[in-house]
Amino acid sequence: MKRIILIFILSISFLGFSQGNTHTQSGGKFEGLAMTPPMGWNSWNTFATNIDEKLVKETADIMVSSGMAAAGYNYIVLDDGWMTKERDANGDLVPDPVKFPNGMKAVIDYVHGKGLKFGLYNCAGTQTCAGYPGTRGYEYQDARFYAKLGIDFLKYDWCNTKGITAPEAYTTMSNALKTAGRPIVFSLCEWGDNQPWEWGKPIGNLWRISGDIYPCFDCEFKHPENWSSWGFMKIVEMRKDIRKYSGPDHWNDFDMMEVGNEMNDTEDKSHFSMWCMMASPLVAGNDFRKMSKETLAILTNKELIAVDQDKLGIQGFKYSAEDGLEVWVKPLSDGNWAVTFLNRSEVAKKISFDWKKHIIKDADFGYEADFNKTVFKLKDLWKNKEIGNTKKNFVSDLVAHDVITLRLIP
Question: What fold is seen in the domain 317-409?
Answer without folding.
Answer: Immunoglobulin-like (2.60.40)
